Amino acid sequence: MDAEREAAPQRGRSAVVWIAPGLGGAVHDEAVPGEFLASHGYVVAVESAPGWRGRVMRSDADVLPVAREQAGQLAALLDRVRAQAGADASRAAVVGFSFGARAALLLAAQRPEVRALVSLAGGIGSAEGKGWLPPDALDRSRFATPILHVYDDGDPAIPPDFTLLDSLKGARRLRSRVAGLGHFDLITLGLARARLPELGTVDPAQAARIEHVLQAVRAFLKETVG
User: Fold this and answer.
1) What is the largest CA-CA distance in the chain?
2) Separation CA 190–CA 168 (nearest Å)
3) For the domain with range 14-224, which CATH number is right: 3.20.20.10, 3.40.50.970, 3.40.50.1820, 3.40.50.720?
4) How far apart are CA 30 and CA 105, in angstroms?
5) pLDDT tens digits, residue range 168-188?
6) Domain boundaries, the chain
7) What is the 3-state secondary structure (H, E, C) of the chain?
8) What are the tens digits of pLDDT across the range 35-82?
């Protein structure tokens, strides 16, 4: 990666972006999107997911409790980031990968400073997670946070389903299908596999797809949080 330890912050105050990894994801899994967004002036914060810390889901009944647990961790993370020099926590966005998009949705519904939600191959737009959120867990009629959902329908095991997204009628919802995008292309491993011969065949097309997603996320955040 290109990041430097203890780099001097830029002048002024910048919007904050949280990143919520997938169920078993750790901070380093989000190094690529985190570094990319930080390089464009955002204060980026990542919290390892509950599964990385040993939380186990034994049935579908555990999905909502674990999503709430992760949303609580993200909320606590924002409160810590407020004290960072240069962080403008009144302008915030949350990016959720895979399972993390569920936590991101719950967080956006709870915190008014969240002005944008990005779902990267998120469970809020798949058939796999269609019934995880009961009606009384989120007031869909009041949810108004703009959403960008990036997905690929090439994996028959995880077909898209927009029932939940379509129920959020008060929110502006953008969907972006990226043909050929693999589920795990959107974590650090995806870009490493595309660029490092040691991990397989170098794939410029895969690297270009990942770059396309990152630029789409940047444009969406620039429009919504500045």
Assistant:
1) 49
2) 31
3) 3.40.50.1820
4) 18
5) 999 999 999 999 888 888 899
6) 14-224
7) CCCCCCCCCCCCCEEEEEEECCCCCCHHHHHHHHHHHHHCCCEEEECCCHHHHCCCCCCHHHHHHHHHHHHHHHHHHHHHHCCCCCEEEEEEEEEEECCHHHHHHHHHHHCCCEEEEEEECCHHHEHHHCCCCCHHHCCCCCCCCCEEEEECCCCCCCCECCHHHHHCCCCCEEEEECCCCCHHHHCHHHHHHHHCHHHCCCCHHHHHHHHHHHHHHHHHHHHHCC
8) 999 999 999 999 999 888 778 877 888 899 999 999 999 999 988 998
How many other CB atoms sit within 10 Å of the CB of residue 81? 17
What is this structure's pTM?
Answer: 0.92
Query: Where does the pLDDT of residue 30 fall: very low under 50, low under 70, confident under 90, or very high at 90 and above?
Result: very high
